[in-house]
Structure formats: structure tokens, C-alpha cells
């Protein structure tokens, strides 16, 4: 790969293990703060400014993760007169769907920060709608204000004082395609425009032989191997001591061998059946026939790896899309969801034994793998076609939809609903008035048709 590192993404200042206590609303606020701070830092880099000032550069297409904290870079489309394809490292959010005019319908398209599926209860649909609206309109009315200022402060774009477009306008017009690192099988089906494609599995690499020591360790595992990794953000080294000790005690009691991805294990008294390393070739480890189980934090790439390999999982999620991914694994039958704060050594051992001995998890994992691999074209081919199509046609007419010209109340058919409700109310009121008139007419006619009886009293006696 040929690239030049201009600026390295900073490490999170907060302990990522504490994010498990954050709500979806907390994470949205964190994302907005992180996004603006990151853009200020990136755009302050001399090499970035030098790149922006070279306006004579020509590009056929620009591929960037614009809609994840990098919105100001949408100005590159106007700067270099090139169409933009947005690449999303995860499934789309309601905010992303709204920008791209994909119908992120709240009734069955759940937010990635929730664990909800595409079949939600009334309460879940209410919460999903509130989160979606907060994310979409909070972005437009709050988050975009500062990002727009950052964009105009760093990109020397001349539109004229009266024609200065908003950040939202540029995002909706300069981005002509989107590539989502998601898959409807490892998730839930959702409606997308033809210009938006899902390429879950694009990160998968061809299988390679394992290093000799690792190959030997797995080959000689009589009862199989359990692979344990919390990814790159959640460092096992920085895991709270109580839970770390639970894992050590649990691994001592296993008959399986364990591969544990941990950055530093020098201060741990490891059981003889555990092999640690700062890094393992995850896809190749999961593909080994002796791999029985994957204990993971539930990052989407890890979920893709395990589905591709057909290995069941225990998911211990913390934040972002991880709770949803844990729910996907559990509801689709190839894994179990555990909460980090509920962990004990006994629970870890019991859950491992359950997944390894209950063949239904392994059978379902292999079925998921078969379904996942059964596709017309590979994710790479889909992505390449979208990019080349955009270059050939200098844009993407498939991204143009009438939704661009609709107001929000028109998009959600509130005006149509108002007319229908008004007509129904008019009909009911009309029928009520007619019925009332008819009832009064009948009663009045009945009274008028009765014979009149005069009564006289003479000498204290009543006579007719």
C-alpha cells in the first residue's frame, strides 16, 4: 500500500471501558464534540493546508469518510470540481440516511446505537424515533453550525455573499454515492438508493498460513481453542482489574486452549493453557478448524470475521454499534450476549461450555457463513463498480431523487395525512349535522302529528 501519514488520529482521552454507561444521547453529544475538535486539529496541519491550496490538482472522484466527523471536507468537491463518494466504516445512521435521502424509516430501521432489531415494540419505536430525530435535527441545528464555520475558515471558496451555500446543501449535492461497510445478513435489511451500496466483508483478506508457533499451539489443542480479543480501542491491558481476574480464573478451569490478544501480560500469572500476543492474525485464527469460539467486544469487523469463518461468539459489548451487534448474534442464533458488569469467573466458564457443547450455535454459525458467502459479486467488485461508474459518468444520476425537493412535512406525508384527517373530520361532522337535523325533524314531526286534547275544569270536575 502506498500512502503518506499526514496526521495520526489521537487516542481517546476518556477510558473507553466507561463508555458502557453512556446512553445513545450521550454518545451523540460526544460524537459532535469529538468531530469538531478533530477537524480543528486536522485542518491545522501544514501538509493539509498545502494540499488544499493546490487548486490545480485534478481528481476524477474523491472517496472519503465525510459523514463521520469530517463534514468540512465536503468542500473538496467544489474545490477540485470532483464528485464525492462517502465511505462509512459502519452501518449508516439516521443522520447519514437523511443526508443521502435513503429512507431511514424509524418504524423498522433501528439506530445503530440501540440494540433494537427491525421488529420493535411500541416503546422501542418511540425511543428509536426520539434518538433518530435528536441525531438528525441536533446535527443540523447545533453540530453543523461549528462545522460550517470550520469549513469556510479553512477552504478558500468563493460563492459570493448572497450565494454562500450551507454545509447541509453541500453534503446533499456534492456526495453522489455512498459505500456502507455493512451487510443485510449481519444486520437487518433496509431500503437504500441505487447509489448507496453495502460492502460488508470488504475488509476480509485471503487466508494465509499461521506462524509456526501459533499453528502448533492450535493443532495440538485436543479440545479446541477459544480466541479472546476486545479489538484495538478496548485494550485488554487496561481492562478493570476485577474483570481481568475473572477471565484469568475462568481460563484456568477450561479444558480448551486460549488465545488472548493483550498488549502487555507481563504482570499477569497466566495459566499454562493460555497464549497471549499483542496481535493475532484474526481471520486466519478463526478459520483454523480447531477454533471453537470467539469472545469479542462486538465490533462490526470482528462480527464479519466470525460470520465468514462460521465460528460462534460470546459478545461483551461496550458502546456504539456493539450492543446491536451482540443482539444480532444472539437473535440469529450464533452467539450469546453478556454484560461486562455481570461477569464472574463462573458465568464465563458456564457460557463458554454452553456455546461449545450446544451444537446449535456452531450449526447456525456455519449456516450464517454459507449465506454470507453466497453472493453474486464480491464486496470489492461492488465498490469498484460504483467508483468506476461515477468516474465514467462524472457523477451518479442514481443519487438524484425527488426527496431533495421536498420539505420535511412533505417527505413524511404530514400534509397528505392532514388532508385525509380533515376530510374524515368533515365527513363525520357533516354526517353528525345531517343526523342531528334528521332526528330533530322526526321528533318535531311526531309531536305535530299527535291529536290535541283540551282539558277544562268546571265546578271542580274535569271534563273532556
TrEMBL record:
For this protein, what is the EC number?
Answer: 2.4.1.17
Subcellular localization is given as:
Membrane
What GO cellular-component annotations does this UniProt entry give? membrane
Keywords recorded for this protein, A-Z: Glycosyltransferase, Membrane, Transferase, Transmembrane, Transmembrane helix
GO MF term (any one): glucuronosyltransferase activity
Q: What class of enzyme is it?
A: transferase
Instruction: Write down the Gene3D superfamilies for this protein, in alphabetical order.
Output: Glycogen Phosphorylase B
How this chain sits in the membrane, per its record, is: Single-pass membrane protein
Report the domain of life of the source organism.
Eukaryota
Reactions it catalyzes: glucuronate acceptor + UDP-alpha-D-glucuronate = acceptor beta-D-glucuronoside + UDP + H(+)
The record's section on Pfam families has: UDPGT (PF00201)
Is Transmembrane among this UniProt entry's keywords? yes
Spell out where the chain crosses the membrane.
407-432
> What is the similarity comment for this entry?
Belongs to the UDP-glycosyltransferase family.
What is the protein name for this chain?
A: UDP-glucuronosyltransferase
